């Protein structure tokens, strides 16, 4: 199926460096863009590259406090007005201060808002901002490599148009900042599939975190055990996510597509392949809603480029051959788009992962499904 699909990109999104040894490497965006270009995906009918824009301060303030926005701007300039630790920054931690930081995150946030506007306005069926998906940032502090929470700000732009939003987060880490933003409302259904907080940052995202007030039953968490593989992940998606989203009937589907679920990711413990990841993305898209797709985590750079290339191809309805185009092979040494075979997982660990997933799904069905008449 061919969709009007936009890939939001400019080199300005990939130029900044958080810290020389930081695991978050923005050049992964350029590697993805170049691989899509090598496959001629942008030449396909209905597909376009969308120029990003910077977010406005007013857009940031739909979620972040004025004090925090002022602090990020000041710290980015190297001024000593604000103590970094109060706002989640430290030079050796997850969120280092770097020159131009404020502008860099204005670009990634504005790119998500522009993508949301194009989808909500009917110009595109799906728009993918791979620089977005920074889902940990809180109203008054940075967290987990995330300074401004572009998913929340983009969703707020959609809510401002009177739209209902389903947000599905498939990053290996719990989408805690987005959950926090919408924990008390039934206008946004937030669903996060992630490695359980028992094992991974940020330590949250259990099934009993289900919303408050009007939002009870509209925060959904599907924690998974280390070594969860493609088949088990897809089973959980089909058991929980797809039926809940269909019952909610959103005006717009927003997805956070972190690919740190990959077997080779250096900081997580799930074992998905790029083709398993792409199948998840494909099934989310097959529900047929107007679709805002955002990036997220992903720290094995070849896996990120391959996975997001397959994901955007699925958004655009384009089938790609497995052999990487020769020029890209020569430049980066990557020969195949898909992983050669599923990872080998110890049978005992596989059984533990299956039992954990079954318990999680049963808990969600008990706690959440009745609120939706399921």
What are the key terms here?
374 residues, alpha/beta, Arginase, Chain A, 8-stranded parallel sheet, 11 helices, 11% strand
Record field, number of beta strands: 8
**CA gyration radius, whole angstroms:** 19 Å
Count helical runs.
Answer: 11
The total domain count is: 1
Give the integer mean of the pLDDT values.
97
Tell me the β content.
Answer: 5-15%
Separation of the first and last Cα atoms = 30 Å
**CATH fold annotation:** Arginase, Chain A
What structural class results from the helix and strand content?
Answer: alpha/beta
Estimate percent helicity.
25-40%
Strand order of the largest sheet: 2-1-3-8-7-4-5-6
Give structural notes.
The structure is a single chain. The protein has 374 residues and is α/β, with parallel strands linked by helices. It has a single domain, classed as Arginase, Chain A (3-Layer(aba) Sandwich). Helices cover 37% and strands 11% of the residues. The chain is built from 11 helices and 8 strands. The chain has helices at 27-38, 57-60, 66-76, 101-120, 150-159, 176-181, 230-248, 274-285, 301-316, 326-332, 347-367, and strands at 5-8, 47-50, 126-129, 165-169, 188-195, 219-224, 252-256, 291-294. Strands 2-1-3-8-7-4-5-6 form an 8-stranded parallel sheet, with helices on both faces. β4, α6 (176-181) and β5 form a beta-alpha-beta unit. α7 runs parallel beside α11 and α8 runs parallel beside α9. The longest helix is centred in the C-terminal third of the chain and has 21 residues, at 347-367. It starts with a strand and ends in a 7-residue tail after the last helix. The relative contact order is 0.14. The mean pLDDT is 97.
